[in-house]
Write a structure and sequence with these properties.
seven-stranded mixed β-sheet
Length: 821
């Protein structure tokens, strides 16, 4: 312990005595460790922390698994089947994927978040009941009454924390609901909710539509493999129980479960690991820089080490002393990096797409806990040993005779004497090149996405969401009347060019339904095919300026009393009528999905241009558009319960200036319902690529940091080399070498290292870029433009870093250099 205190005191004295070296080393380490701490804090919150539920490792998500895809959405018939598997599961619960909006009506209407949940939801997720109770089995059955459970936040915000709230009524969508209970403040709902309504799924349901989630808890002692084995049997039971469910489960498909946490974080896992690897590269480059500084410093201290060795200090003693110095540096860098990382993650999350799970609003759930502190300490100690060990081993083997004889300005010259430093610079360049290649590929993706034609014009289009939950809007006639009234009111506003009403927006996915083409033989699955499905009012194609290629648009005469009509997009026409004209053909939608979806045949009246209905990086899919006024009553009620409807308004100028007038007219048309989320359509388009943009931004920042560190490393090595070889340069000049030749000699020596690093980096880049292939669009992971441009850019930066020391070498005064010996 005494030796350690002595080493620590000596290390601190040496570092304080060399402030320029110390500040440079700590700054480089703080950058690398801080970046790693920032990304790890997100990884820790998203991937490592257990869910905030009782026994979270036993909570599983139910899945429909087909040979071509896996879906976590479920149908009422799925839920009834899974709930019966009591030998392996308990507390099986159904709940909405993303809570629909509920109109809290009254003096000041407000749109609140809410979900439908089955009775076991609160037990499964351990929701603490602060007041009252949750749903009974009777209340969660059909016709179980209008009851609601509210959140702590809504109780405090809207009702002032009234302790006598249980048993009173709340108005949702103009309907009275009895408050059963209040959930405690500590409950973390996913999705977030202000109110919970009972799902009231009919035990005799034949609804095969997939529109909600189901989770459950494994029974004690049951493994995931055992549960999945039982679900394979359950899939066969399902087919026998529901023989008409031709569209509900693929004949080759089955049921399965996976840990709930895996399902929640699935979309973020791969991108977080890529970013963690990227900041790991930045840290390695920082370590290489500091190792180079230590090697330079150790070279200057050769006489010191030789004297200590001559006085009896062993190699282990010298290594321990140097490692102590490097660890002190790394710990100081780690402490500074912890602060930088915490501040950095707050800044980075301001650019976050908002879809990173479990981090809370603006990263509120991310904080410093013992995992972060342990990671920071561990990575600080590891880097201290990593960059300090090699210089320490080299310095502990001094040639006493030569070290004691040579003067301080002759120590270490040329590439052979600086081989270790050169190898570190080569490593820095190669790692920086890999990061820059990754960043360039994502930049190319960013550019490619901006050049995608979405198939519609988003300019000057305003979108407004409204929840239509309530008895008035459970039938199609009520929704159709609201659509007509709302469009008449909005179109009368000066400056409004056109308006429409629809069940969803482009680029935000939607529904998929099977269909049959009347008169065509059925496929092996008893239906012709499947396609995207939306309902829209007249004016939808006008608002988005989607061209009608053939046929006609909807009109107000296409109401519930008129023959059923449908419009298809070009992708659907090409796929299902490759050699025919779809106009006049008839389509029957919803076969095998239950009575809520099945309907009489519709006639195709038009073909419209393709739009990107799910994302900009996905090709247009077959799409069916039906009039809002001709949707079945069952499907209208289901859509209203799943999520809000959308109003779309095209204006002559900036749409923001029309928000107040449009919102007021829609409130009047709906009977006082509030308008929910309001966004320009251009914002919707931007949000569709937000995750890709965020990944590009971070990787570009890390790549730029790596480029800067690599340039500093090259400059530092060559500047030191020029300083140590001043006498050699003087001799060369005295023998006739001109200044241009001296400069070129130094430039070539530095660029040789850069070229070696670039060659290694290109090879590594070809191997490593496959890990980001899934994030790319419109560019291959081996894109030749990137693999040519990035090495050229790095070569130019390296040349600039080498040119300054080379110019200094060319200005050496031969007489002064020779006298310095």
């Amino acid at each position: 312990m005494g030796d350690f205190r002595h080493d620590l005191k000596y290390s601190l004295r040496m570092l304080i005595a060399n402030p320029a070296f110390t500040i440079t080393a700590i700054a480089a380490l703080a950058l690398g460790i801080g970046a790693n701490t920032a990304i790890f804090s997100v990884v820790n919150t998203v991937l490592l922390k257990p869910l905030d539920y009782p026994e979270p490792d036993r909570i599983v998500q139910f899945l429909n698994v087909d040979p071509d895809r896996t879906s976590h959405f479920a149908s009422p018939t799925n839920f009834l089947n899974w709930r019966d598997q009591t030998s392996v599961f308990q507390d099986v619960a159904a709940y909405d994927d993303a809570g629909p909006g509920f109109n809290l009506t009254g003096t000041v209407p407000e749109l609140v978040h809410g979900i439908h949940a089955s009775r076991n939801y609160f037990t499964l997720f351990g929701a603490p009941v602060l007041l009252g109770r949750t749903f009974s089995q009777q209340e969660d059955s059909p016709n179980g009454g209008k009851v609601v459970v509210i959140s702590y936040g809504l109780w405090k915000r809207k009702f002032g924390g009234n302790p006598d709230i249980v048993g009173t009524s709340i108005s949702l969508g103009g309907e009275s609901y009895t408050i059963l209970g209040v959930i405690g403040q500590s409950f973390v709902a996913d999705p977030e909710a202000d109110v919970w309504l009972p799902f009231q799924i009919d035990p005799n349901s034949t609804n095969y539509g997939h529109y909600f989630l189901v989770a459950g808890r494994l029974k004690p002692g049951i493994t995931l493999a055992q549960a999945n084995a039982q679900l394979k049997i359950a899939a066969d039971q399902f087919r026998r129980r529901y023989p008409d469910a031709v569209a509900a489960i693929d004949p080759r498909g089955t049921f399965a479960v996976q840990p709930l946490r895996d399902n929640i974080v699935a979309g973020a896992r791969s991108s977080l690991f890529v970013l963690l690897g990227a900041v790991g590269f930045v840290l390695l480059i920082a370590c290489a820089n500091v190792a180079n500084l230590l090697l330079v410093r150790a070279t200057g201290r050769r006489r010191e080490f030789a004297i200590r060795a001559a006085m009896g200090a062993g190699r282990a003693r010298i290594i321990r002393q140097l490692l102590t110095e490097s660890v002190v540096l790394s710990v100081a860098g780690g402490i500074l990096g912890l602060g930088l990382g915490y501040a950095g993650v707050r800044v980075l999350l301001t650019f976050s797409p908002g879809d990173i799970p479990r981090i809370g609003e603006h990263g509120a759930a991310i904080g410093i806990d013992w995992h972060i502190l342990a990671f920071n300490l561990g990575i600080s100690l590891l880097t201290g040993i990593l960059f300090g060990l090699f210089p320490a081993i080299g310095a502990s083997r001094p040639d006493l005779n030569s070290a004691l004889k040579e003067s301080s300005n002759r120590s270490g010259t040329g590439f052979r004497q600086s081989k270790a430093r050169s190898l570190l610079v080569i490593s820095e360049v190669s790692l920086a090149l890999v990061l820059l290649i990754g960043a360039a590929l994502l930049i190319r993706t960013f550019i490619a996405l901006r050049h995608v034609n979405p198939g519609f014009n988003a300019h000057n289009v305003l979108t407004l969401e409204m929840s239509l939950i309530g008895d008035r809007y459970q039938k199609t006639a009520g929704v159709a009347q609201f659509s007509r009234d709302g469009r008449e009111r909005v179109n009368a506003i000066p400056g409004v060019e056109a308006s429409a009403f629809a069940c969803g927006l482009p680029l935000e996915a939607g529904y998929n339904l099977p269909f049959n083409i009347v008169g065509r033989p059925l496929g092996t699955d008893q239906y012709t095919g499947g396609a995207g499905w939306i309902s829209a009012s007249p004016g939808y194609f006008t608002v988005f300026q989607i061209p009608i290629v053939r046929g006609r648009d909807f009109t107000d005469s296409d109401d519930g009393g008129a023959p059923g009509v449908i419009i298809v997009n070009q992708a659907m026409a090409r796929r299902y009528w490759p050699n025919q004209d779809p106009i006049g053909q008839q389509i029957a939608i919803g076969k095998g999905h239950g009575p809520q979806f099945e309907e009489p045949a519709r006639q195709v009246i038009g073909i419209v241009g393709d739009i990107r209905n799910s994302s900009l990086d996905a090709d247009p899919r077959p799409l069916m558009i039906v009039p809002v006024s001709q949707v079945t009553d069952g499907l209208t009620g289901l859509i209203a319960s799943i999520g809000p409807m959308a109003w779309l308004v095209r204006t002559h100028g900036d749409p923001h200036q029309y928000i107040a007038a449009i919102s007021d007219q829609l409130r009047q048309a709906s009977g006082g319902f509030p308008v929910g989320r309001i966004r320009p359509m251009e914002q919707v388009v931007a949000q569709s690529t937000a995750r890709e943009d965020f990944n590009m931004l971070l990787l570009t920042i890390f790549g730029a940091a790596a480029l800067l560190l690599a340039a500093i490393g090259i400059y530092g090595l060559m500047a030191y080399s020029v300083q140590q070889r001043a006498q050699e340069m003087g001799i060369r000049m005295a023998l006739g070498a001109d200044r241009a030749r001296i400069r070129n000699l130094v430039v070539w020596q530095g660029m040789r290292l850069a070229f070696a690093g670039i060659i290694l980096g290109i090879g590594a880049g070809f191997g490593l870029t496959r890990f980001i292939a899934s994030f790319l669009f419109g560019v291959k992971s081996w894109d030749p433009v990137v693999f040519v441009t990035v090495p050229v850019l790095l070569s130019v930066v390296a040349l600039l870093a080498v040119w300054l020391p080379a110019s200094r070498a060319a200005r050496v005064d031969p007489l002064q250099a020779l006298r310095s010996e």
